[in-house]
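Private note to self, pasted from the team thread so I don't lose it. Backbone tokens:
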């Protein structure tokens, strides 16, 4: 398993994996030391289907685990909102 860090990405988000790289998301954690945070994970690109959205309050970290994992065949797009926040994806 690998851990992939994704920093604050504004309203657009970031293409973390391309459509040519199938991946399985086993979980992720949110780190938010200075503000509340929201992480939106989409299948494909910025207009793809939202497969998971997680939130964490100020100065708290949250972890989301998926026993079976979530498979992404069209690519993975992640948007992190919250000053100073970041998400750490657990990829199998």
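Design output:
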């Amino acid at each position: 398993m690998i851990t992939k860090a994704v920093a604050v990405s504004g309203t657009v988000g970031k293409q973390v994996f391309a459509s040519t790289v199938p991946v399985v998301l086993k979980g992720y954690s949110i780190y938010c030391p200075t503000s509340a945070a929201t992480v939106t994970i989409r299948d494909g690109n910025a207009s793809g289907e939202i497969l998971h959205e997680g939130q964490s309050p100020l100065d708290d970290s949250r972890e989301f685990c998926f026993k079976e994992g979530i498979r992404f065949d069209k690519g993975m797009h992640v948007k992190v909102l919250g000053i100073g926040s970041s998400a750490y994806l657990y990829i199998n």
